[in-house]
Amino acid sequence: MFRRIATSLLILWCACAAEARTRPHYGGSLRIETRFDPWQGADGVARKFTLDGLTRFDDSGVLRPALATQWSAQNAEHRWEMRLRADVHFHDGTPLTSDIVVASLEQSCNAGCPWTTVHAVGSSIVFTSDNPVPDLPAQLARAQFLISHRDAQGAVDGTGPFAVAGFAGGVMTLAANDDYWAGRPFVDTVEIRPKRSVRDQWLDLNIGRADIVEVPPELLRQAQQQHLRVIQSAPVDLLALQIARSGTLANQKLRQAIALAIDRSALFNVIFQKQGEVTASLLPNEQSGYSFLFSVDRNLSRAQELRAGATPPQLTLACEDSGADLQLAAERIALNLREAGFRALVAPDDHSRADILLRRIHLEQPGPQSALGEMLERFRQTPITNSEMAALFREERDFLAQFEAVPLLYLPRAYAVGERARDLHLAPDGSPMLEDVSLEDVK
User: Fold this and answer.
1) Is 244 a residue whose pLDDT tops 50?
2) Helix/strand/coil (H/E/C) assignment for every residue in 112-132
């Protein structure tokens, strides 16, 4: 009997100890390193930690209330009303009002908005549009529409789970918002060290100086071989060519020849180490279900046939960003074009006059209609009013038939996580979600 009681007490003690080790607790400073500026651009991680939108997607891709608690559509989805959450304040203490929200939205979207007008009505925001906008609540979750205002010093201020506490010694510090409407984050502060090479990030992770670092898709396999603890998103970054429709390339057959000359498999297998998916569609297959209908096969003989024996003037191929992976991909694409009879030169710097631009386009929206609208917006301003999959397929097919855009690959986003960090999740667009992250001391 004594042995049974002792054994039971030992099991209970072990269970309590294990629970104590894994239960989230408050405190500590989370350390993040990145290659990019954490604030500049809609994709800056610090902006997403400090600013809220009217709506948000959880880590399962479900649309949730944020600064708006409820919404409703009228007039066949030409009019939307969104009711603001009460008793929300910016980090400087300024109350959130409908007038501030309208001013923020007008500043972030003064042209090409998914709405025609936006105005404040009491504690609500009313959007009207000339066309039906069935996915407006989803679109308002995009980083472009995060709500901000200027504080007394003229700095951008938000209502998010963290507030900017300072920038010193090359480190941006964010402090937990004790009064956050969704509950205080577990960590006290977040330290973001920008403009760090991947090599330096991984070194800092291994010696315990960083908790979350980047893993580019082409290095995912290497990270796994090094036994890093990696968390990875679905494919969310589209690698695509944007081809000018002027000069020599005003000829649609030449644009089609360029599209047919690209060897996507070589890009996928060699440069990006079989991460993500090969595509000729603007949407990843898990979103649309029809991307397989767009052929990804290279057809060099057909490309040469479309060129009709002519030797066009030298074409300039440039990259939208300076990433080493894009530069390698551009060199491979230029080789493909030369094999098809084009004279292609990779321009390392200025892309403003490029005939062909290699782009990395981040996809934020998890729904097919919103996602396709977002992608088409990156190439042209075209509202989508029909949410049926057959209609979306026709819209995408007709656009791609112009060969202004040539999708190549869809790539994931990934992060390596140190031993101290617990419960890191990624949003549907691959952004880290820090509200539930806690730290555990490593002995």
Assistant:
1) yes
2) CCCCCEEEEECCEEEEECCCC
